[in-house]
Each structure stands twice: as structure tokens, then as C-alpha cells.
Write a structure and sequence with these properties.
Keywords: Signal
Organism: Flavobacterium psychroterrae
Number of strands: 32
Largest sheet: 5 strands, mixed
Shape: globular
Radius of gyration: 23 Å
Protein name: DUF4374 domain-containing protein
Number of helices: 2
Distance between the termini: 49 Å
Amino acid sequence: MKNLSMLLVTAVALVSLSSCEKDSEPANPNKVNYALSTTGGTGSNQTTYLFGTNEFPTGTLGTSMAAELASSGMMYKYGSDVYISTFGAPATLRKFVFDESGKPKEIANFSVPGLKTFGAVEFVSATEAYATPVGVAGVPKLIKFNPTNMQIITTIDLTGLQKTDATDVFYQGMVIRDNFIYIGINYQGAGFINLEDKVFVGIINRTTNKVEKLIEDDRSSEMWVGGTTSSFIANSLIKDANNDIYVAGFANNGKPSGVVRIKSGTTEFDPTYFFNLDTATGKPCAGLFHFDNGMTFTVRYSDEAAYPFDFSNDKPAATAEIYKIDLATKTTSGNISSTLPKIFGSPAFMTKWDNDKIYFNVPAANNNSVYSYKINGGAVAKEFDLSSGVCNGFTKIN
């Protein structure tokens, strides 16, 4: 019995020693916990950089460890995975992981011939996601794919959403509610002008993979942003805690920028609700950022000449500001910080992963930085700068 007791004591000691050795093993300092994407350059000479950091970023970030992709790009995140869509035929969505050295590694992708880029990507589950085409002479289809293995499941025909006189159709953002996919649509006529000044939303049935109908509202005009809950840029459509969908229309031809609503349980615009953003903020606005507890923001242009593409007199013009708004009361508390420089509104983004801060980029005329907005109290502070291009995505992945 004494020998047996000694064996047991020795075994316990060995297990404890092994456990201590494992606990004392140093963590990998190259393990990526935060992923970022930036785009630098101008016109056709642009490069998108994807890189990561182990600790929360500080100081000025470079791109020495980045994956470089030719042309402008858009970052998406689902779970702990990062996806990048770049502009240029064929439209390609790439899935990345970060290796042990901290470098991004492309592990899968899919391409769709005939398309130049994906305007919006939204994820439902690890096996169901959707991507919309966008671009001049875009093909009317919605791609349903499996984000785990990056295989296309099916292609949904969107010709039922076409309009006879439209020379180009742009699919602007996406929201999924119940059994339907809601997609914002912009119709352009000859001369690249709005075919009609209305808000358009196409509704697709997820069970049949067919177009259900097209709905419209003439109180605002056609939208021009295509974010989703999986992206970082401003959204055209958001879904709140009540399962109501809010759609942001743009200002044009005397129509104000405004928010319309599709109430839970319906597939029509609510005639009793309209939030006139021009009246509330004093200037036209572009898109929505929506978070828990009804926290909503929009991009407000202080110079209407630069609205909504950040050009004035054919030159780039940073004139936008981030305004906090209230969808329920149809009011605004104004600019989140009067000390911030004016920004380029098109690449503006906001994101959060906890209940402490919302992070947003400040793509200004002379520098590009990421700031934070304190959820409790609204304090705004700079977090870090970027040395190469505009930050178009920032997320915690671990």
C-alpha cells in the first residue's frame, strides 16, 4: 500500500509539473487579435492592405506585414474570419486567416465572371451568405454562397428587379429579416442620372430564391451606400431590436435625405414614418450606422457641393461630419465632436465589439486616423494613425 501511495503522489506531482510548464509557456506575440484594412493611392493606381496586430493598435501603423491587393477594396468580417472584395473583373471575394507569424494568408476565394466587384456581402450562418454585384453594366444576380468553404451554392436571378429605362442598376446594401432578403437599389438613366427620385428596395424570398417584389417610397431619393452588418461602411438599410427595417434615402432634385421604415411583419414602407435628415441636421446626410440600445449615427455633409461623392469643383473635398441621431424621436444631438477635422464621407466607417466604445475612422484631407466614441458619456479620443491610406475596416477577431 505504501508503494501504491508513493506512485499516486508521484503521478500527481508529474501532472502538476506538466500543467505548470504549460501555463508558463509564453503566448505567441505574433498572434493577430485585431485586423485592419486600408486603401492607398488614387484612381486606378490603388492598393488595398490587409494586416493585423497582437495588441490593440497605438501610435502610427505601417503595412510591412500586410497582404497587398491591387485596386480599392472592402473588408468584411464574420466570426473570426476576414474577407476582402476588391474592384476589378472578375468580381472576387477572398477569405483570409492570419498565420503564426502574424501575416495574412488567403485560404479560399470565389470569382464571378462578368462582374467587377461585390457591392454588399451579408452572412446568415457558417453555411449561408449572400453577395450582390455592383458596377456599370452589372449583371442582375445575387450570389448565395457557403462562407466556410467559399463555394457558390446558387445564383439568384434579379431580372425581376430591372426597370426598362435603366441603363445601370446598383444594388446598395442588404438586410436579412425572417425569410426575406431586402436589397437597396439605385437605378440610373441616360447621362448617369437617377432614373427616378425614390427609395427602392427589392425583396427576395430565401426559400424559393426568387424575387418577391420591388417596393418604393417617393419621400426621399435613391441611395448611394452599400454597407451591411458584416461590413464597416455606412448602411442603406439597418434592422433594429424591434425587427423594424429603416432605409436611408439620399437628397436629390428637391427631395431630402431621409429615413423610411418597413415595420416588422410587413413588406411595405410605413406611410406613417418619415425622418427628414435635412431638416433635423440642417444639411444632407448619407447612410446609417446602427448599434445596440438605439444608438444610431449618420454622415452629414456640411458642404452640399461635395455631397455625396466627396468632390467639389472636380476636386476631392473632405466636408463631412458624424452626427448622432435618434430614429424614434426623429431628432439629432449633433456632431459627435466639434474638434474633429472634416472627413471624406464615402469611406467613413463605425464599428464596435463591446459595450465600452464605438470605433470610427477619420479620413481627413491631411491624415487618416481611427478614433473612439465612449458609449457612456460620448467622449471622443484618437486611438491611432495610419501611414498608408484610408482605413476601411478595423475589428477584433479573437
